[in-house]
C-alpha cells in the first residue's frame, strides 16, 4: 500500500519502528489535548467576558434607577452613589477592553466608553443648574438617552459575545472531530504498517525454522532486510548452510566407511578361504609324513626291501617338498592379505577420526545457534509485549539447536563405539599377521626338514649297509616333521578363527555405518 514507507522502514530496527508508531500516537494525543485545552480556554474566556457584561448591565440598570430616584425624589444619597457605580462601569469596560482583541468589539467598547464619559459629564452639568427646572429636565432627558444607549450597547455586546461563544464552541467541536478522526486514521495506518513490518518477516522466519526442524536443508533463504528480523534470517541461513555442508560431509564419510567395511569383509572371507585350503594341504602333508614314517620303519625291519622302500621314500619326499612349497606360497599370500586388511583398518580408523571432527563442527554450530537464540530471547524480553512473537521464534530456534546437539552427541557415541571396534579388529589383525609369519617360518622349517629327508634317502641308496641306522634316523626326522605339521595345522586353525572374528567385526562395522546413514538420512541437503 505504501511501498516507499516499507522501503524506508525495512532496514530500520524494531525499536525504531515501535518508537515511531507510539510517537505518532502520542503526538496525535497531544494535538487532541491541545485542541481540547484551547477550546476549554476559549469557553472560559467567553464565560468570564459574559459575566463581566452581565455585571455591566446590572450596574447600568442600577445607575438608571438611582438617577430616576434622584430626579423624582431629589435624594442626595442617590446622587452620591452614582459616581462609584459609574467608576465601576469604567473599570469593567477597561477590563473587557484588555481581554477582547477583536477590532469590532474594541470599537463597540470604545463607543460605550464615550457614552459613559458623556453620561458622567452630563451628571456634572446638573449640579450648577439645579434650580432651573427646564434645563434640568433637558439634561435628565439627555442622561436618559445616554443611559439607554449605554445599556443597549452592553446588551448588544452580550448578544454578540454569546454568538461568538457558540461559534467558537461549534468550531472547537469540529476541530476535535477532525483531529480525532485524523489521529484514528493515522494511528490505524501506523499500527498496520508497523505490524506488517514485524509480523510478515516474523512468520517467514518461523516457516524457515520449521523447514530446518523438519530436516529440509535444501531451501535457500533470501534476506533483504537490515533489522533484527533480517539478522535472524541471516543466522538461520548460516545455520542451514552449515548443517547442509555437515550432512553432505557425514554422508560422504559414511559411504566411504561402508565401502571400506565391505572391502574388509571381502578380504576376511578370502583369508578364511585361503586358510581352509592351507588346512587341507597341511593334512595332506601330515598324511604323507605318516606314510613316510611307516615306510622308514618297514625299511629298518625289512632290509630286503630296502631298494623299494628307498624309491618310495624318495617319491614321497618329493611330494612333501612340493606340498611344503605350496603351503609356504599360500601362507605368504595369506600374510599379504592380512597386511592389506591391516591397512584397510587403519584407513577406516582415519575416516572415523574425520567423522569425529565433523561432529565437533556440529556441536560448535549448535552452541552458537543456542547462544544466538538466547540473545534473541533477551532482545524480545526488552521489547515487552511487542516482542512476544519474536520470543516464541527464539524459543523454537533454541529447541532446534538443542535437538541438533543431542543428535550430534548420539552420533559421537556411535562413532566412539565404531573406533573402539576398529581398534580391536586392528589388534586382532596384527595378531593374525604375526601368526601367519610364524606359519611361514614353520613351513620353511618343514621344507628344510624335507630336504634333509631327501638327502637321507640318497644316502640310503648309496649305503645299503647302513639301512637300519639310516631308517631309524629317518623315523626320528619324520616324527619331528609330523609334529611340526601338527603345529602348523593348529596355527592355521587359530588363524581361521581370527579371520572369522575379523569378518564378524567387519559386518558389525557395516551395520554401524548403516545406522549412521539412517541418522543423517532424515536431513535433506
From TrEMBL:
Keywords: Cell membrane, Chemotaxis, Coiled coil, Membrane, Methylation, Transducer, Transmembrane, Transmembrane helix. It is found in: Cell membrane. GO terms for biological process: chemotaxis; signal transduction. Residues 324-351 form a coiled coil. InterPro entries: Chemotax_Me-accpt_rcpt (IPR004090), HAMP_dom (IPR003660), HBM (IPR032255), MCPsignal_dom (IPR004089). Residues 253-489 form the Methyl-accepting transducer domain. SUPFAM superfamilies: Methyl-accepting chemotaxis protein (MCP) signaling domain (SSF58104). Residues 196-248 form the HAMP domain. It comes from the Bacteria. Gene3D superfamilies: 1.20.1440.210, Methyl-accepting chemotaxis protein (1.10.287.950). One of its GO terms (molecular function) is transmembrane signaling receptor activity. Belongs to the methyl-accepting chemotaxis (MCP) protein family. This is Methyl-accepting chemotaxis protein.
